[in-house]
Amino acid sequence: MTDLLLRNARPWTPGEPLAITDIAITNGRIATPAGDAAQVIDLDGAIVLPGFVDAHCHLDKTMFGGPWTPNTGGRTLEGRIRNGEGRREELGLPNPDYAANLLSAMVSHGTTHVRSHIDIDPEVGLGGVEAVREAAARLAGKVDVELVAFPQGGLLTRPGTAELLEAALKDGVEVIGGLDPAGFDRDPAGQLDLVFGLAERYGAKIDVHLHDQGLLGAWEYELIIQRTKATGLAGRVTISHAYAMGGLEPDHQRRIAEGLRDAGVAMITCAVGGAPVIPVRLMDEVGARLAVGNDGIRDLWTPYGDGDLLRKVNQVAFRDRLVADEEIELALAAGTHGGASVLGLEGYGLAIGCNADLVAVDADAPAEAVVSVPQRKLVVKGGNVVAHNGTIIG
Amino acid sequence: MTDLLLRNARPWTPGEPLAITDIAITNGRIATPAGDAAQVIDLDGAIVLPGFVDAHCHLDKTMFGGPWTPNTGGRTLEGRIRNGEGRREELGLPNPDYAANLLSAMVSHGTTHVRSHIDIDPEVGLGGVEAVREAAARLAGKVDVELVAFPQGGLLTRPGTAELLEAALKDGVEVIGGLDPAGFDRDPAGQLDLVFGLAERYGAKIDVHLHDQGLLGAWEYELIIQRTKATGLAGRVTISHAYAMGGLEPDHQRRIAEGLRDAGVAMITCAVGGAPVIPVRLMDEVGARLAVGNDGIRDLWTPYGDGDLLRKVNQVAFRDRLVADEEIELALAAGTHGGASVLGLEGYGLAIGCNADLVAVDADAPAEAVVSVPQRKLVVKGGNVVAHNGTIIG
Question: Which of B332, B336, B337, B303 is nearest to B315 (CA)?
Answer without folding.
Answer: B332
